[in-house]
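Interim report, section 4.2 (structural modelling).
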Amino acid sequence: DQQVKQNSPSLSVQEGRISILNCDYTNSMFDYFLWYKKYPAEGPTFLISISSIKDKNEDGRFTVFLNKSAKHLSLHIVPSQPGDSAVYFCAASRASYDKVIFGPGTSLSVIP
Amino acid sequence: EAGVAQSPRYKIIEKRQSVAFWCNPISGHATLYWYQQILGQGPKLLIQFQNNGVVDDSQLPKDRFSAERLKGVDSTLKIQPAKLEDSAVYLCASRKMGNEQFFGPGTRLTVL
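Predicted structure of the assembly:
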């Protein structure tokens, strides 16, 4: 049973436009959400996180939005750059110290 | 600061053979994780150590997988005997505080 879902396996966006990556979760006990970015032949790297007490967190070009009632979060990248081309994993945990459950990932391609 | 080191980077074995992976976490990181990432899926936690004690090994197939973290630093993950479905990337991650995990580059295992 997949507790964290990323229903779009891939996404293509023109350079300079907005990239929106979506994530849904089923476990209402999840309290902390993260996004990781992964380049080929490398391990995932932490990008941004959000606690359930917030509905938005921003870090430079990256913003994560959380809609708890819909059990949905999204990652916005503005403006998108070719270097953003990677696989993005949505992840969730019941607390900041608890084990993290990863979604299957969305492969983002930013076209110059 | 040096990142999480893993070796080997690639391994090809025949089914029923044994294999071992090594991980050296970031210095001072008390928590260490082993993940299995099958192609097209997100990382799945196999085992979590806190120093040299096991915190969570609920998803470790204990009939064939074993892991240890002697002296609370380096860790090894062993598969004996390997099956075809064990073909995956094995990721090691470590964490000092908060929920940000730092991942190593992974070991890509192919079982023929």
